Amino acid sequence: MRSGAPDRPVVSAGTIPALLVCLAAPALFVLRLPWLGWVLLAAGVAVALLRERRAAVAAAPSLTRDLVLIGAGLLIVNTIDLKAELDNAAMLRFTLALGGAVVVPYVVSRFGFRDRAIRFPWRGGGRWSGFQWVWLVAVLLLAWLILPFYFITSGVYQNWPVVDTPDLVARLFVGVGAVGIWDELFFICTCFALLRRHFADAAANVLQAIVFVSFLWELGYQSWGPVLTIPFALLQGYIFLRTRSLGYVVTVHLLFDAVVFAVLVHAHNPGVLDAVFLVSP
Fold first, then answer.
1. 173 three-state secondary structure
2. Per-residue confidence at 56, pLDDT binned at 50, 70, 90?
3. Cβ–Cβ under 8 Å, residues 34 and 28
């Protein structure tokens, strides 16, 4: 996965418009103030355009164009309420909005701007190392230890619907997994990849984490959830840099989400999985 420029700064004049665009995410998904999100997006793109001027329409990577792509994805996601629901209409809304937030930036980048900034390298760096396999086990263990305590003691499991029938349990399983895969397609392969063209890896990772964590907040990871979701978002960006493998970061995410799914079933159905987890509702 190559970046756009050989010497990418941690902080530069471009940080201001990029930060404005990324701060639109907490405005949209945490504060739930659409007007503020729109203002921040418009301001970020306008500042980037004033800074780049003619470079914004040149063949070289343009911060203005890349911020437009990120902003477009955010606006598409914001067309729906991210409250977790499991009926057919809700699942269709999620599919169209989240799918559009990935497809539209990709199509515009690939066929409109004629570049390949957004890619989905499934295998990336090749075979997984021994450490990568160990990390998968560690993810499961950490999720098993932490997530039941978080969801049950904070009460945030109530942000997800009650799942007390086989049909609802199956829908929850599909929904949690699908959103987990989408997270990596949009936040890592789209937002992070675009930001890395202009900023050092660490800076781009922090910026994408702002967007990632904001989305997870509206999705339901509230209360002290950011204590978990901030490190998770940063780690996913770092792991992607090291492995260059979408397949691996998706696997990590799905293992984590498998525990999320089990905890939600456990929390909504006392007694069903009490023998599996250390914390019970």
1. helix
2. low
3. yes
